[in-house]
C-alpha cells in the first residue's frame, strides 16, 4: 500500500492553509467586512485590459470536460462568467451569448442536441 496519494493530499491541504494564512495577514489590519472586501479586491481582482482579454479568451474557448459531470462543467462556466462580470459593468455577457458559448462547448457526442436546439431557436 502506497502512502504517496495521502502525502500528495496532505501537501495540497498544507498549501491551501499557507495561502489562507497569507491572505489573512494581508487583511489583518482592516476593521470592517467592507474594508476587508475592498482590500481583497485591490489585491486580487485585476481589472486591467490584459486580464479582461484573458478572461474573455478563456470563456469563449470553453469546452466541456468529458471527464466531469454536467454540473461540474456548468459550475466552471458560471465561475468564468462571474469573473468576467466582476472586472467591469460592461463585461457581463447577455443570456443569449451564454447560451451560444455553452452550445459550442458541448462535446461532439451532443451534436444532435446542438442541432435540435439551433433549429428550435430559428423557429421561435
TrEMBL record:
It holds the Pfam family Retrotran_gag_2. This is Retrovirus-related Pol polyprotein from transposon TNT 1-94. It comes from Acer yangbiense. The lineage of its organism: Eukaryota, Viridiplantae, Streptophyta, Embryophyta, Tracheophyta.
